[in-house]
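Q: Predict the assembly, please.
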Amino acid sequence: MSTTTPSKLQQIIASGQMAVTSEVGPPQSADGEVIDSKAKIIKDYVDAINVTDNQTSVCRMCSLVCCIRIKLLGLEPILQMTTRDRNRIALQSDILGAASFGIHNLLCLTGDHQHFGDHATCANVFDLDSSQLAMTVRMMRDEGRLLGGSKFEVRPQMFIGAAVNPFAGPNVFMRVIRMGKKAAAGVQFVQTQCIYNLDKFKEFMKIAVDRGLTEKVAVLAGITPLKNVGMAKYMQKRVPGMDVPDEVVKRLAGVPKEKQAEEGINLAVEQIEELKGLPGLRGFHVMAIEWEEKVPEIVERTGLYPRPQMGGGG
Amino acid sequence: MRLQYSPNLRIIEVPCTGKVDILHLLQAFENGADGVLVAGCKEGDCHYMVGNLHAKTRVKRAKEILDTVGLGAERVAMYNLSSGEGGRFVEIVTEMTNKILELGPSPIRGAMEKGKMIREAEEVTT
Amino acid sequence: MIKAKPKPLEEIIDNVKDLNKLLIAGCDGCVTVCEAGGLKEVKILAAALRLYFTQAGKQVQVDEASLTRQCEKEYLAQLSDRMEGYDAAVSLACGVGAQYLAEMYNHKPVFPGVDTCFLGVNEERGLYSERCQACGRCILAETGGICPITRCSKRMLNGPCGGSDKGKCEINPDIPCGWELIYERLKTLGQLDRFERPVEPKDWTTSRDGGPRKIVREDLRI
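A: Predicted assembly structure:
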């Protein structure tokens, strides 16, 4: 896992324990309290908290500020940065700012195209892509240098992450190769797209293990509980790169409406239980979108509570 | 068949409606036509395979232009029939004639009659 | 070539409705190939405008022309003895030609008659698609002859992204995923090793981001 940082998440992974992360979505308003309350719901059940960055290109309170709020609550944030909205100047600038507040986890993303969001007519940036962002932050951390060449003293101590989607094209093997490419660019941990097709995910992990990749990159499996059959169908049909097998949709459909949420949680719990011992897997990233209150239950029922208390760091 | 139809129709014969260019349609109106009817073979039966399909797209474009310039899309129309359907031809002509009568004379013709036709266009050759 | 499409007729009418003498100027170059601004389209537009003016009760002269190219002063100069006689011109050339026409006859309004869209190919008649973004530093040798800056919606150099779905781009299932195309091509060429190496951030100074561009070929200039 190369460079060690003060990141608590990195420490937990390095200690060999299963890590648990989750995410909070910022509000589309100036109300910072929203982030504080969401973080407080999940704080004892996760090791680190992602804050999404204008996810699906919907303009929201910025991730960096929300991460600062989380840090000030004494918790461990993971700053998500997309390259869609910011060029290399702004990205490096925000990284320096994040580091100045003791934020030590960065998830490098290219980002959903603005077509999906509420500002579809905007210009996009994409000066860098996610791999290039990882290269950049690695250079800032390990060499104290910016892309433009200038050197500086106080370096950002970032534990570098990225997203992987084992279910996107062209095929599973190439998605592993791509994860390898991200590792070569400096990525130390990844969170996967939410998993419903466990067989395919296991295939992905097997290839990754065989290639020695899981020694270099900590893989955290993305788990999203389904609220109802409508959500399952939506994800199956309308979200590019998502693989939701028919059995999953059928399972939720086979249960009366008022029981579907419970069934969705049950499914998430079962998925975590099934994947827990998977070779190469270092933890879980529970994405309960606008359903943060269910995270504690999922973490408890899967025997992942209480979370280890790591000394020092942060 | 010796069926009667309205005398207001001036027929221009073409080997295939695929020969009808959008400029022919527009220039007919420039020259004072109140309406233009394009009669082609049934889709799938075109002797030249897709001639009538080309005509269809051109008539559609002409309709859009006629609407935008204030003449009305209904003044041009395409009908498909086989050459053996004499009765259908009379039906079509009658239908179109009645429609044009409803719409009234083309404003272009009115301008021509008042001597307010725009000058003959000059083509600038370079 | 440059691909353009005819502007909505309403927009053109709005620009010229109060004028009396117009020249519709086409171009025999790219816009003829994509059937947006050649002599044929000039005649169609001129006929439409004459119909408009006549039914509006106005007598307006609408003349028709098409130049070999509007991006070349030599050809634009062929209009020099006539331009004085017009109130304005509608140029059906691409944005390049329309501007050059306006530059040469800068005291006459020149209105664009087409929307210039991209550099692309004729897949079939009436079906054109983008292939090049003119970034100024071509990397086709590294990507099997397929440009990721153009064909990837996010212009990634280390693609594909996680939204690449069954070979299609996440933003539109009619758009092939540029990186899947590159992957397949590199596989065919036996160059998949190129796929495994991370590509460094791009120098965008040679593209639009560096400001309006110029090429000065000393070898062609005396």
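The first helix of chain C runs from residue 9 to 16. The CA atoms of residues 120 and 130 of chain C lie 4 Å apart.
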